[in-house]
Amino acid sequence: MIEVRNLSKSFNGRPILKNVSGVFEKGKPNLIIGASGTGKSVLLKCIVGLVKPDEGSVLYDNRDFFEGDRDTKIAIRREIGMLFQGGALFDSKTVEENVRFPLDTLTKMQREEKQERVNFCLKRVGLENANKKMPSELSGGMKKRVGIARAIVNNPNYLFCDEPNSGLDPQTSILIDELIQDISEDFNMTTIVVTHDMNSVMGIGEKILFIYKGQKLWEGTKNEITHSNVQEMDDFIFANKVMSSLREKQ
Amino acid sequence: MISEIGRYFIFLGHLFTNREPFKTYYKLILEESVAIGLGSVLLVALVSTFMGAVTTVQTAYNMVSPLIPNYVISQVVREMTVLELAPTIIAVIFAGKIGSSMASGLGTMRITEQIDALEVMGINSISYLVLPKIAASMLMYPLLVIIAGVCGLGGGYIVGTLTGIITPNEYVYGIRYNFNEFTITFALIKSVVFAFLVSSISSFKGYHTQGGALEVGVSSTQAVTNSVIAVLLADYFLAQLLLSK
Ligand SMILES: Nc1ncnc2c1ncn2[C@@H]1O[C@H](COP(=O)(O)OP(=O)(O)O)[C@@H](O)[C@H]1O
Ligand SMILES: [Mg+2]
């Protein structure tokens, strides 16, 4: 479980996050949704510590990330896996080297053990025969899969995904969403997914936080989302034609 | 400008708060050294050979007095090549070739979030990515300068003797005449300093890229111009510092 308390962050005097709080639960994907430029990525980066918030705290299973000593910080970091928007694969390394990288740098595992783990993770994301490929040879969906494999290779307790299906076709998007959901359940991880894709929201949105201009305006499940009575969120979710026709039927 | 220089020194500070074991760096430095050496040796050899040749022809052209012996030509070529052309002009080439590729490589890693990916894993991305580049440059650049010196003198020899400006014996005599060994030391000190400046400034520019592909290009250009300016300033100060008596 990850708990965020009163996070605020400004860049050059411009407030981007305003007093955001929330709880992210274990064993399922927790969604952060909102329009582009509202601060979703900044929120995620604050949670993983890539950006230091001006105020507020982040608790990983009751361990304070920013207040904790260096060892706590390093320990938490090693329990984090993250999937970046474009995959962020190291483009001078092969698929296999990319996935093995966290094991190489963070663990003292033996070579065979690492290889077994890498193969297991690649198989888990459905990429058995791509070990020796370079990132430049992969499609967008495959890059995301390799990114997921790299994120989970070191058995993380926490998984973060920034727009896992941006730039993917609808079918591949659904596959990636389901993969993230299954992995979160299988390995009992606390997973946070940033998205603005309504398909994902309706597909895997067991727990949703809606961010609008740096503020959390609403929190709930996909079943509650259509009758929230929050005008800004209605504007966001019913911008989608399918969703608005759904509302008309209701 | 001032804050940029401040950020540069903070950046340098992060280089040495390293957390990775030495073995990791050893391998990375080796890889970078091979890339830097192989990537620039041909260009360096070509440019310095021609510079030596041109210096010989021009020096001869400017020495019209029959009272000046011919070996002075190769003596001038030697001083020019070893002191200035090899370390300094090749540093400009080095900035254009290696510096720009360091900046664009790191810039691409930044905008595609590869640097963030390293940081999330708890790796000090500055020391992991940049330290090997700087160390490899400081190892390889002096070697390149030595190659440039040899090629420059060789270029002068070939052109000088083929065009009949100077006889082989006179050329070799001039190269050896009144030679002060400190010149070589000075050239090597310069090359280590220049290598540090070019690689650290270019890495700094690339590492702090913000935006997209366009900004990577801008960083790469700025890396070259800023490195060249720094090299020329350092050239002047080193000459003041080490050559003034
Ligand atoms: N490092 C930064 N420096 C300054 N401004 C930033 C930085 N990172 C993000 N921002 C700004 O914060 C705002 C929110 O960005 P972001 O969180 O990426 O939006 P999104 O919700 O689309 O992920 C944007 O206006 C962006 O320009
Ligand atoms: Mg974003």
Automatic annotation (TrEMBL), chain A:
<feature type="domain" description="ABC transporter">
    <location>
        <begin position="2"/>
        <end position="238"/>
    </location>
</feature>
<keyword id="KW-0813">Transport</keyword>
<dbReference type="InterPro" id="IPR003439">
    <property type="entry name" value="ABC_transporter-like_ATP-bd"/>
</dbReference>
<keyword id="KW-0067">ATP-binding</keyword>
<dbReference type="InterPro" id="IPR027417">
    <property type="entry name" value="P-loop_NTPase"/>
</dbReference>
<dbReference type="GO" id="GO:0005524">
    <property type="term" value="F:ATP binding"/>
</dbReference>
<protein>
    <submittedName>
        <fullName>ATP-binding cassette domain-containing protein</fullName>
    </submittedName>
</protein>
<dbReference type="InterPro" id="IPR017871">
    <property type="entry name" value="ABC_transporter-like_CS"/>
</dbReference>
<keyword id="KW-0547">Nucleotide-binding</keyword>
<dbReference type="Pfam" id="PF00005">
    <property type="entry name" value="ABC_tran"/>
</dbReference>
<dbReference type="InterPro" id="IPR003593">
    <property type="entry name" value="AAA+_ATPase"/>
</dbReference>
